[in-house]
Amino acid sequence: MVTFSLNGREVELDVDPETPLLWVLRDHLQLTGTRFGCGMGLCGACTVHLDGAAIRSCSTPLAMAAGRSVTTIEGLGGNHPLQHAWVEHNVPQCGYCQSGQIMSAAALLAANPQPDEESIRQAMSGNLCRCGTYHKVQQAILSAAAVAHWQPAAEDAS
After folding, report:
1. Which has fewest Cβ within 10 Å: 43, 110, 122, 149?
2. Distance, CA of 121 to CA of 119 (rounded, Å)
3. What is the C-alpha to C-alpha distance for residues 63 and 42, in angstroms, rounded to an integer?
4. Are 105 and 91 in contact (CB under 8 A)?
5. 83 with 102: CB under 8 angstroms?
6. Residue 21's closest CA among 123, 153, 13, 128?
């Protein structure tokens, strides 16, 4: 049995601890916002937070989540400043990579609420977008950072 906090609630699963976290989220917990991209942790589509840090869930075994806090795109609740900025700046084209992009950006803003353009480029460099919306992503992150009362995700506030 592996027990961890998922989007603020405790879960206990009888799943092989070596199963990639991505497949546990999608197949066992039906949280399909986290996407499969490359399966090697290189594209960023599967990005989630582990104790507030952005990680690649496709290459992270479930055992790494034991006793820790995992946040998925669903855990941002749909009202995160980044989600509003994504809409405002019309970031997604196909949308496939966007949950991973937003999760990486949320970890960035939790660590650095006022990033400059270079900090954003560095933090987002591991998230690939086939549609090439990188400039829009950067503008959306800057916009979210400028929100006067920006609040980090729940697990990042502790």
Report:
1. 149
2. 5
3. 21
4. no
5. yes
6. 13
* Tens-digit pLDDT profile for residues 103-121: 999 999 999 999 999 999 9
Q: For the packed helices 98-111 and 134-146, what is the interaxial angle rounded to 10 degrees? A: 40
Could you tell me which residues come within 8 angstroms of residue 8 by beta carbon, excluding any fewer than 6 positions away? 71, 75, 154, 155
Structure-token match 């034991």, residue found:
66
| Predicted pLDDT of residue 151 | 52
Q: In three state form, how does the secondary structure of the chain look?
A: CEEEEECCEEEEECCCCCCEHHHHHHHHCCCCCCCCCCCCCCCCCCEEEECCEEEEHHHCEHHHHCCCEEECHHHHCCCCHHHHHHHHCCCCCCCCCHHHHHHHHHHHHHHCCCCCHHHHHHHHCCCCCCCCCHHHHHHHHHHHHHCCCCCCCHHHCC
Residue 155 has pLDDT above 50, yes or no: no
For residue 156, what pLDDT is reported?
45
Taking only the tens place, the pLDDT of each residue in 139-154 is 999 999 998 455 554 4
